[in-house]
Structure formats: structure tokens, C-alpha cells
Amino acid sequence: NIQSTNWQNVRFKPPPPNSPIGWRVEFRPLEVQVTEFENAAFSVFTVLLARALLAFSDINMYIPVTKMDINMQRAHSRDAVLREKFYFRRNILGDDKSSELATDRGDDVVEMSANEIVNGSLDFVGLVPIVQMYLDSIEVEDGVRSKIDTYIDFVRGRADGSIVTAAAWMRNFVRSHPAYKYDSVVSSEINYDLVVALDEIGQRKRNAPELTGIEIGSL
Predict the structure, then answer these.
(1) Residue (of 24, 37, 28) closest to 166 by Cα position
(2) 3-state secondary structure 62-105
(3) String of b and e for 146-160 (b: at least 16 CB within 10 Å)?
(4) Among 84, 45, 79, 83, which Cα is nearest to 165's?
(5) If phi over 0 gives left and psi between -120 and 50 gives alpha, with beta otherwise, what is residue 218?
(6) C-alpha–C-alpha distance, residues 204 and 208, integer Å
């Protein structure tokens, strides 16, 4: 059925019985991050992108489900955010968008890096610019916009590799641990120290700007 074919990415949630709540779409791919800041950044970015899609109704991001399945398989490889290419629609904007954002390369589905998809390139507008275009079209208080920009900068950094993923951070921690013997064995000592370090980062007791993109005092 339709749920079993798209569950890796979105899930349709029917209205509860005798409720004014309508149909909903649950966004599913994200993993829980180490810090509240990271979770907030991805959540806010996802909501803003959804609102941009509603506001700019001619945006088309449809790609074949078979290509999405390939994307999901590639996303599981090590450092996929930096090393892999993912299928995405090259021209997602309608003809009535401003010339600096629209492309004339057609609606074909091509392979792009995560950085190209999120931040854009000469041939593709990028998801971050679409969100920024939406924010520019509505009234947002300066303080709120500043906070949102911090979240967007984080998402941008994760996509271009300037901010490491949690998986990369943990691999680096293990590989640099004094007890690691480069034998693929994560001992109880290493595992304990890793959990303690992650807990301290989550509680803002340990600075990890390479993971969050900002200093502990700004989390």
C-alpha cells in the first residue's frame, strides 16, 4: 500500500475520528541528534521548508520512488553527506520565480551532493535559499530571524562538511582514544568514555563546536 512504499521518508496520518484535525504528513528520515540545538535546527528548518512549499505552490520536488530508494541506500554509507551523490530534481522552481533562482536546465532528475541539494550551486537553487526566500517574503522579528539564521547556518554547515555529523564525531572520538588499538574493537572503557562525553555535550558541560558549529555558551 502507499504507506509501505514511502514510510522511510514521510507517512500520511489520517484524521482522528470525531476530530477537527485534518490529514497530516509526518516527516521521518531524521535521527535524534546529540544536543537540543541540533534537534531544534533540523526541526525548524523542516517546518520552514514545508511552509515554503505551501507558500510557493509551484515548487516541484517529485522524483521516482525507485530513485528515492537508491538515495536511502546511499545515505547509509560512511560519510555519505560528503562522499555520496543523491538523486534530486534539477529544476524545482516554477517559471514565475525570479531569474536569479530559476534554472533553465529542465525538470530531469540528476545526481547531486548533499551540499548542492541543501546549499545550492550554479545549476540548482538549493533548499536553504528557498527557505531564505520564504523568510524574506514574510514579516519576521529581528531577534527571531537571528535565531533562525543560526539554525540555517548549522544545517548549511552539516551539508558542506564544515560541521561534522554525530557519526563522524563518534568515530573520531574512538579513533583518538588512548585505549583504541585500531583493531575495530570498542572496549568497555572506550564505550563508557564515549557515552560520558556525549552526555556532557548534551547537557552543555562539554564544548564541541566541531559538532554543533557554535560554542557551548551559545547552545
Answers:
(1) 37
(2) CCCHHHHHHHHHHHCCCCHHHHCCEEEECCCCCCCCCCCCCCCC
(3) eebebbbbbbbbbbb
(4) 79
(5) alpha
(6) 9
As a whole number of angstroms, the distance between CA 164 and CA 27 comes to 23
Those residues with Cβ within 8 angstroms of residue 50's Cβ, 6 or more apart along the chain or in another chain: 27
How far apart (Å, rounded) are the C-alpha atoms in residues 153 and 147? 10
Which residue in 109, 42, 124 sits closest to 70, CA to CA? 109
Length, in residues, of the chain:
219
pTM of the model: 0.85
Please give the grid coordinates belonging to residue 94.
516554477
Question: Tens-of-pLDDT digits for all 219 residues of the chain?
Answer: 555 555 667 777 888 889 898 888 887 777 889 999 999 999 999 999 999 999 998 898 888 888 988 998 999 999 999 999 999 998 888 654 443 444 444 448 999 999 999 999 998 999 999 999 999 999 899 999 999 999 999 999 999 999 999 999 999 999 999 999 999 999 999 999 999 999 999 999 999 999 999 987 776
Classify residue 211 by burial, with Cβ atoms within 10 Å: 0-12, 13-18, 19+. Answer: buried
